[in-house]
Amino acid sequence: MTGIIILIILGLFLFVVEFLLVPGVTVAGIGGLACLVGGVFWAYSSHGNMVGHITLITTVGVTLLTVVLALRSRTWKNFMLNTNIAGSIASEENTTNIKPGDEGVSISRLAPMGKARINGLVLEAQSTGEYIDPRTKVIVIRFEGSKVIVKPKID
After folding, report:
1. Res. 86: pLDDT tops 60
2. Does residue 133 carry a pLDDT above 50?
3. How far apart are CA 145 and CA 155, in angstroms?
4. Partner residues linked to 139 by β-bridges
5. Which of 20, 47, 56, 123 has its CA 20 to 30 A from that of 32?
6. How many helices (H) does the chain have, and how many strands (E)?
7. How open is the CA angle 147-129-96, to the nearest 5 degrees?
8. Most confident listed range (52-56, 98-102, 144-148)
9. Is the dihedral of CA 105, 117, 113, 94 positive or negative?
C-alpha cells in the first residue's frame, strides 16, 4: 500500500510542477497522469474493488484540491515579481527648466516626433502636425506628459 501512496503523491507533485513551472503539456504532466493512473490501477489489481474505489475517489478529490490551491491568486503572487516602476521619459527636473515660449533647435527631423535641444537639454519633441527639418528653430507651445510640443519659429 505504501508504494501506491508514493506513486500517487509523485503524480500530484508532477502535476503541480506542470501547472506552476512548466507551461503546456510536457513530460511532467504526462508523467503525473501516468503515476496517478498507475497508482489507482495498482490499488484495484492488488487490493480489490473496495480499496480501488476508495483510492480512485480520494485521488480525484486530492487532485482537484491540489489544482484549486495551485491556481489561487495568492499562489501566483509568490511567483510574481512585485516591482513598481516609477519614472518617465522626461524627468521632472528637465521639464521645470523649460517653459512654454522657450526657444530651441530641432536636432532630428520632427515627423512629427523627434529630438530637439531646448535650453541646452536634448528632449523628445513633437511638432503640431507639420514636419520640421533638422536645425530648424522651434518654440515650445506646451507639454503633454513627457513630450514637449513645439512649432517652427517664424522670423
Report:
1. no
2. yes
3. 29
4. 103, 151
5. 47
6. 5, 5
7. 25
8. 52-56
9. negative
- What residues form DSSP beta bridges with 122? 117
Q: What letters, b where the CB count within 10 A reaches 16 and e where it falls short, cover 74-87?
A: eeeeeeeeeeeeee
Q: Which of 127, 124, 92, 91 is nearest to 112 (CA)?
A: 127
**Is the domain defined by 92-152 classed in CATH 3.20.20.370?**
no
Classify strands 121-127 and 137-144 as parallel, antiparallel or unpaired.
Answer: unpaired
CA dihedral 40, 41, 43, 48 (to 10 degrees): 130
Nearest one of 134, 135, 128, 124 to 151, comparing CA atoms = 128
Q: In Å, how far are 9, 48, 56, 143 from 44, measured between CA atoms?
A: 17, 5, 9, 74
Q: How far apart are CA 117 and CA 137, in angstroms?
A: 10
Instruction: Tell me the sheet residues that pair with 143.
Output: 148
DSSP assignment letter at 23: -
Q: What three-state secondary structure class fits 89?
A: coil
**Which residues are registered as beta bridge partners of 132?**
110
pLDDT at residue 87 in the model: 43
What dihedral do alpha carbons 32, 36, 42, 43 form, nearest 10°?
160
Q: What is the pTM of this model?
A: 0.47
